[in-house]
Amino acid sequence: MARSLKKGPYIDERLMKKLSGMKAGDRTIIKTWSRAATITPEMIGFTFGVHNGKLFISVLVVEEMVGHRLGEFSPTTKFVRHGGKMQKEIEKGKPAAPVAAAPAKSAKK
């Protein structure tokens, strides 16, 4: 849900205080747990270590990110893969068996 326009974007004050003491383009990583903080134009060029619940993921802020939240660029879940017989065949490089052939074999039994 979007934040009300009369309230304005949420900007973490401690995060902005850390930014004020740094030079633009500085490559030091600024660690933060504030995933809900909105990216502002002042943050462009800085690298943030955004916490995803387990570790800090480095996010280099570019111009296209302005208006988004920091947490959008630090995923909290990791996609492992879908399992099963077809997935194993795909990984080995073999062509997957046709899906229509499988029910035909079971119908003969």
TrEMBL record:
Q: Which Gene Ontology biological process is one annotated for this entry?
A: translation
State the superkingdom.
Bacteria
Q: Name one GO cellular component term.
A: small ribosomal subunit
User: Which InterPro entries does the UniProt entry name for this protein?
Assistant: Ribosomal_uS19, Ribosomal_uS19_bac-type, Ribosomal_uS19_CS, Ribosomal_uS19_SF
What are the recorded GO MF terms, alphabetically? rRNA binding; structural constituent of ribosome
Q: What organism does this protein naturally occur in? A: Candidatus Wildermuthbacteria bacterium RIFCSPHIGHO2_02_FULL_45_25
What's a Pfam family in this record?
A: Ribosomal_S19
What is the name of this protein? Small ribosomal subunit protein uS19
Q: Which HAMAP family match?
A: Ribosomal_uS19 (MF_00531)
The protein's UniProt keywords, in alphabetical order, are:
Ribonucleoprotein, Ribosomal protein, RNA-binding, rRNA-binding
Q: Which SUPFAM superfamilies match?
A: Ribosomal protein S19
List, alphabetically, the PROSITE patterns matched. RIBOSOMAL_S19
Low complexity biased stretches: 95-109
Tell me the function of this protein. Answer: Protein S19 forms a complex with S13 that binds strongly to the 16S ribosomal RNA.
Stretches the record annotates as Disordered:
84-109
Q: Which family does it belong to?
A: Belongs to the universal ribosomal protein uS19 family.
The record's section on PANTHER family has:
RIBOSOMAL PROTEIN S19P FAMILY MEMBER, SMALL RIBOSOMAL SUBUNIT PROTEIN US19M
